[in-house]
Amino acid sequence: MHRLLLLVCACWATFASAQTQFSVTFPTSKGTSFDGRLMLFLAKDNKSEPRFQVSDDANSQQLFGQNVDGWQAGKPTLVGASAFGYPVKSLTDFPAGEYWVQALLHKYETFKLKTGYTVKLPMDRGEGQNYRTAPGNLYSKPFKIKFDPKAKQVVKIVLDQENPPIVEPKDTKYIKHIKIQSKMLTEFWGRPMYLGAHVLLPHGFDEHPEAKYPLCINHGHFPADFDGFKETPPPADMDTTDYVARFGVYGYKKFVWQEAYNFYKQWTSKDFPRMLIIEIQHATPYYDDSYAVNSANMGPYGDAITYELIPEIEKRFRGIGQGWARFLYGGSTGGWEALAAQVFYPDEYNGCFAACPDPITFEAYTVVDIYKDENAYFLPGDFKKTPRPGMRNYLGQVKCTIEEINQRELAIGDNSRSGDQWDIWQATYSPVGENGYPKPIWDKATGKIDHSVAKYWSENYDLMHILKRQWATVGKKLQGKIHIYCGDMDNYYLNNAVYLMEDYLKTTKNPHYDGEVKYGDRFEHCWNGDPNLPNHVTRLRYNTMYIPKILKRIEAGAPVGADLKSWRY
Fold first, then answer.
1. What is the distance of C-alpha 215 from the center of its chain?
2. What is the pLDDT of residues 41-59, one digit of tens each?
3. Counting C-beta atoms within 10 Å of the first and last residue's C-beta, which end of the chain has fewer, N or C?
């Protein structure tokens, strides 16, 4: 028996040593020592670099990831069987063939948090938490190899390329940029932390110095600059061969540009309401934005935005500076943020227009009920595992599963460090775990749900549960302020939570919520509430859709003596 065991061990050692490995180094010209996530990419073609070919699509190319700590220049790090992969989980199972290979280092920084924990995370560097393009990240030039997982082979890769810095946007007549150091966030993170915004000034701002303006906060993902506003029309000869399969249209880039120019023409027209619109930059070390709420893992972003950034914007750009003259809107992440900010700060805002919001109750965390279900990846069954869908099109055709999305994120980074969707929900809503990182809502490998974490989510971030618990005290402050719009074929099943929220809101009394919830038949993600236009148009018209609604709220609910004239020129 003992000899058999020795023989098995010897055979395994021979097999393991024969497997193909990748030896990755970086030169001293790029630095001396780094922490981070080392990623290896393998792709069948070079239509684009392999680092840009990993996705949730069926034709995603391959990624393997592993952590590095104190990695020194010139010292090889081996990527082999222990690296976690997506879509194929292990390098030993990856099929032989010819591939384009590339490696990348996503750099981490060390943070000594107010919580007492020390964590290593990728600080946003102006790109909006994108490991592919984050300034300072090292990568290699792609090259072609013949790969055989069982061959005795070491492929050498040198990270001798570096992503350049992001160019800051420049001010124009209408668009201004602001950045402040947040005292609250700096204290939490143990290093200087900043909040920024792109501010769209109303037409006639300089010509009417006496005017003070209402403020619209257009929540959403990390904006490089103010989105959807262009002072010039698209070039007549602009290429229109680009095709967007999701919408079934050609020339969408030109169409988007034209819509942005149309908004400029409306914005500067005689009768359009004069307001300030801002898009906030609040990227965190976990994601491209903070979800605009206070979080155990990310700090007091809700307070910092509401009590530091917004008052500073109003001071600099002549905002009215009162809750009745502040309004929230956005879609997807921005839809959740708009509703959450209205719920958590009912006196500070006078209405939210939430389109296709991320799950507003975790009874329908897309297709998972985190309170009742035992597993997030599979439907319950004695002898069968039926995967839960993660994304679909308007016909219900499934693009990928929840398990696949989560395991792609796990390959990019463990401990909620992928900078992607399910990880930021976890980083926002979870308590701090024993290792200082967000406590997982479920096991990323198996999908098993931790119901103690689910209870914490319910008490602190389930917006429907919070409204039910607090309606007797906050209902009067929220009356007429809640407006929700969602396509009934939302790609991420976000309509499921909206149905439950609507059922609850209909039952509210003393007062009735007096808002609206609307659905678009067969509309997908980012529908803004207009049933008369296709999805690819409505998703571009948040500003023009909601500003007239905001004007009605101002006229109906402004307090006695409020300034309703200086900004109506």
1. 24
2. 999 999 999 999 999 999 9
3. N
